């Protein structure tokens, strides 16, 4: 019987009976209901803006002028309340006194109040919260400001911390990650759209993003201090604008973009003068963008960037009447250091689209790759692939355009590969780039769906030969092994006790991401091996560091049950990169009884840190681990047996010997001197073979080959 034919009363009774029969899922159901209700309310809050956008679009289609939107006066309590459609007490906390400054949050509220009530400070430090003007405002706070405001040393330190904490970043991320809001109000942080965006922020449920009121205030006040910058950021994350005016952020097209923006949104003001905008894009990148959008330039100079001589000739040609540029663009070109710009244009670069803000091994990998390219002198243009609003709030820092003719898509085939540009808020360049997919895989056979994804790119890179073999088996395009390089970023040295761990215990660490499939990471097997290795009362501990356990409640319950009663600490938190390395450094050894790994990044990091490492002797990690620099656990290959998405039941992976793993852990515990020697050998081996410099040089060489292949057939 179709569900819709069941009477509503019977449907409710059936659902109630199911709830009673499965009480352990009540919390999950209630959370789902709350989230559904919040999402519905959030969608309804955008309805007025959709109607306004429809009216604006109709005006533009008829050729009628778009009237300027009412401005928002952030310093007028009555106006901000009217704009939000809420009472003032719902959008402001009341004045915060100096005596009430207890932490960064109250310090931020105090600064918001100070900025709103002190017109003299706004006039003296017009960009006091921005990177350009913050130093001067901070200096004032530390001198005459502290005295005038009655701030002692502790309260002043909290204000300075708030000033430098980029408190608007999470609010900006919430806006950028909201597809509908971004589509309807791309100009929302400019004076032309601020009133509407203010209403949206103030009327929506802040619990959806976990935002605090002062974070929203901070974002708007900071945006008001530099509206030209906000217009540039709006363009950088509005693909529709990028498609409409593809040269909009270059000296060759910014005047046309401003005219277009004024016509579209009825904007006015001195902030629309491009001469006042910050330098987001280098001169070389601006030339690259224009070149990719101007067929006449490419026809006149088809090998414009193929070498220094070609680049110099092209730049010289741009200043002639043949190029058809206006006086402003010609004068700008003549003001540049032509030799330096030509050298930069001749350098083979790449656009890199990847997970720069998602706390995972993918982020570490793409950051390492880009750093290696930088060391090798390869220019890059970077975009972050947004997963959701819980990513680190730095998405707006990655605003590069697709200006190079090679693009590396450093994101897995699923779930974001097909929408990588969309989630990066980037319009694809009209001139298609040569596309490289950088993929990790943990088996000798790739899923069928990957073949279709591969049809969108020109070649695939893998981090290890293990991963590359599975890709080559199925793909018709080139597959190359290009290790991304591994480095230890600077980190804070912290004790075991900082993480709640006993100082006297020998501590094994395993770090993994719950999203990466717990069965593959095999922490349950590690727990069993640990229990075999050690007796009750011995000064030893196993630490399992994971994250996003709330998304996998069943697996988390399994982990806690398996660890119960043993000296095992389970940490389920999203750590910063600094904290991740800090924890690894505090522990004595690293162990991974994985069933399969595409690379094994945490093992490489532990080796670089000089830790003895125990790991399954199978898959990507054996590209850099051997019997001399680590302890490799023997294994047997077994079929999965059942499907574990995204892995098919017929795939094979390793089943490591728990008895051997227990013996190895026991030896490290019993022979600390030998353990230290193994760590020294591991560090030396990793430094020699996993360096960013070597990885960057290999990537640079392949990019140069691609450029030569693409331009070699053109007239020289």
TrEMBL record:
Question: Pfam families, per this entry?
Answer: Glyco_trans_1_4
Q: Which domain of life is it from?
A: Bacteria
Name of this chain's protein: Glycosyltransferase family 4 protein
- What organism does the UniProt record list as the source? Variovorax defluvii
């Amino acid at each position: 019987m179709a569900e819709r034919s069941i009477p509503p009363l019977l449907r409710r009774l059936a659902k109630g009976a199911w709830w009673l029969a499965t009480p352990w899922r009540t919390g999950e159901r209630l959370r789902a209901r709350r989230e559904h209700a919040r999402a519905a309310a959030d969608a309804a809050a955008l309805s007025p803006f959709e109607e306004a956008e429809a009216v604006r679009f109709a005006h533009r289609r008829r050729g009628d002028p778009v009237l300027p939107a009412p401005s928002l006066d952030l310093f007028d309590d009555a106006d901000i309340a009217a704009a939000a459609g809420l009472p003032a007490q719902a959008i402001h906390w009341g004045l915060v006194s100096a005596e009430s400054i207890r932490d960064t949050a109250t310090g931020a509220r105090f600064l918001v109040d100070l900025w709103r009530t002190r017109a003299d400070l706004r006039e003296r430090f017009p960009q006091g919260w921005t990177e350009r003007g913050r130093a001067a405002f901070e200096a004032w706070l530390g001198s005459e400001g502290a005295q005038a405001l009655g701030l002692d040393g502790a309260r002043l330190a909290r204000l300075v911390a708030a000033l430098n904490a980029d408190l608007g970043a999470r609010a900006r991320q919430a806006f950028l990650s909201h597809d509908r809001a971004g589509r309807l109000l791309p100009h929302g942080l400019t004076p032309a759209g601020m009133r509407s965006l203010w209403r949206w922020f103030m009327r929506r449920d802040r619990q959806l993003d976990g935002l605090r009121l002062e974070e929203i205030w901070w974002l708007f006040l900071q945006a008001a201090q530099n509206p030209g910058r906000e217009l540039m950021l709006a363009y950088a994350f509005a693909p529709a604008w990028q498609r409409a005016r593809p040269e909009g952020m270059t000296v060759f097209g910014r005047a046309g973009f401003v005219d277009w923006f004024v016509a579209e949104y009825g904007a006015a003001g001195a902030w629309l003068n491009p001469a006042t905008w910050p330098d987001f894009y280098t001169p070389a990148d601006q030339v690259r963008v224009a070149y990719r959008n101007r067929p006449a330039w490419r026809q006149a100079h088809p090998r414009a960037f193929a070498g220094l001589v070609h680049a110099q000739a092209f730049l010289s040609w741009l200043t002639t009447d043949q190029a058809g540029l206006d006086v402003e663009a010609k004068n700008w070109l003549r003001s540049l250091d032509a030799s330096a710009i030509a050298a930069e244009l001749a350098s083979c670069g790449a656009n890199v689209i990847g997970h720069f803000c998602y706390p995972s091994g993918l982020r570490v990998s793409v950051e390492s790759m880009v750093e290696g390219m930088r060391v090798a002198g390869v220019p890059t243009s970077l975009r972050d692939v947004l997963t959701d609003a819980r990513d680190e709030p730095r998405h707006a820092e990655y605003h590069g355009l697709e200006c190079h003719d090679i693009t590396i898509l450093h994101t897995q085939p699923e779930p974001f590969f097909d929408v990588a540009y969309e989630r990066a808020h980037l319009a694809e360049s009209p001139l298609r780039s040569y596309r490289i997919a950088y993929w990790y895989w943990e088996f000798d056979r790739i899923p069928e769906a990957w073949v279709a994804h591969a049809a969108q790119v020109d070649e695939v890179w893998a981090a290890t030969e293990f991963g590359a073999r599975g890709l080559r088996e199925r793909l018709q395009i080139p597959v190359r092994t290009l290790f991304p390089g591994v480095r230890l970023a600077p980190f804070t040295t912290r004790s075991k006790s900082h993480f709640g761990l006993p100082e006297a215990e020998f501590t094994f660490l395993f770090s993994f991401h719950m999203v990466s499939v717990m069965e593959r990471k095999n922490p349950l097997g590690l727990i069993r091996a640990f229990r075999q290795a050690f007796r009750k009362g011995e000064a030893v501990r196993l630490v399992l560091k994971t994250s996003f356990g709330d998304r996998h409640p069943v697996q988390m319950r399994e982990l806690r049950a398996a660890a119960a009663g043993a000296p095992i600490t389970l940490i389920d938190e999203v750590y910063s990169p600094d904290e991740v390395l800090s924890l690894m450094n505090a522990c004595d050894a690293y162990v991974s009884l994985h069933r399969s790994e595409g690379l094994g990044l945490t093992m490489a990091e532990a080796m670089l840190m000089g830790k003895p490492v125990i790991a399954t002797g199978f898959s990507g990690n054996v590209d850099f681990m051997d019997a001399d620099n680590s302890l490799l656990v023997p294994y047997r290959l077994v079929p999965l047996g059942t499907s574990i998405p995204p892995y098919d039941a017929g795939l094979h992976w390793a089943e490591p010997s728990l008895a051997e793993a227990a013996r190895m852990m026991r030896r490290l515990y019993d022979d600390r001197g030998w353990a230290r020697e193994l760590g020294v050998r591991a560090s030396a081996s990793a430094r020699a073979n996993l360096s960013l410099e070597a990885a960057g040089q290999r990537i640079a060489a392949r990019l140069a080959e691609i450029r030569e292949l693409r331009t070699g057939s053109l007239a020289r």
